[in-house]
């Protein structure tokens, strides 16, 4: 059994065949798919998906860093209202993105801190987006972790160095989200991942993005989790069944999943 710890099943790319996508995932032994929130307009579609597929879908709540602008307080207020009234397994997708635009870096840092505090108040994990900001995000999390040892979560779409991985491991209760990137030709993250103890690894697709090789460039979907697992089995030189078992156990240690 597999868990896709980060998949955007609500994305418009799945509008033509979302039911079939979820069916293919279940047929591929992906028993649970965790959906991160992005902005205020994604809250209701994600909630609806979890209502339709209660056995296979779970939701996170948060505002993605690229959705944080000057008026981020209004968005956070709406997300917190949803958080109070719904059931969520994590605060996410939250963090800092300095790839597309650095204009609102200060606001992103402030919003990241506020949402970490939501997680602490509710004893929920956090799911961290750290594009072009991994070291900064680790610094922020490490500061909170030094004061609140219960803080836990996943660094989504990990693509850092071995030094970055070691810093995350030192946090003790954080995992590295590994997806299609690890299968890309000449991917440096593959050289890093194989040096990380398997107890710190969870699987994700980030679908519809980052489809694994040899399907790179096509729409990704949760049914491709076994392709990522197969690559990890090769890197760790263990049976793919061990990857499935251990990454599922790792995900359940982070997310409160009733499987």
Can you give keywords for this protein?
eight-stranded parallel sheet, TIM Barrel, alpha/beta, 259 residues
Helix content: 40-55%
Main beta sheet: 8 strands, parallel
The strand line-up of the biggest sheet is 1-2-3-4-5-6-7-8
Strand content: 15-25%
End-to-end gap? 10 Å
Q: What's the SSE pattern?
A: EHEHEHEHEHEHEHEHH
Q: State mean pLDDT (0 to 100 scale).
A: 97
Q: Could you say which overall geometry the principal axes of the C-alpha atoms support?
A: globular
CATH class equals: Alpha Beta
CATH-defined architecture: Alpha-Beta Barrel
Architecture overview:
With 259 residues, the chain is of the alpha/beta class. The protein has a single domain, classed as Alpha-Beta Barrel (TIM Barrel), CATH 3.20.20.140. The protein has helices spanning 18-27, 43-52, 72-85, 105-122, 134-147, 162-170, 188-193, 225-236, 240-254; strands at residues 2-4, 30-35, 57-61, 90-97, 126-131, 153-155, 174-178, 201-203. An eight-stranded parallel β-sheet has the order 1-2-3-4-5-6-7-8, with helices on both faces. Strand 7 (174-178), helix 7 (188-193) and strand 8 (201-203) form a beta-alpha-beta unit. The relative contact order is 0.16.
Q: Could you outline the blueprint of secondary structure elements for this entry?
A:
Layout: E1 2-4, H1 18-27, E2 30-35, H2 43-52, E3 57-61, H3 72-85, E4 90-97, H4 105-122, E5 126-131, H5 134-147, E6 153-155, H6 162-170, E7 174-178, H7 188-193, E8 201-203, H8 225-236, H9 240-254
Parallel strand pairs: 1-2, 2-3, 3-4, 4-5, 5-6, 6-7, 7-8
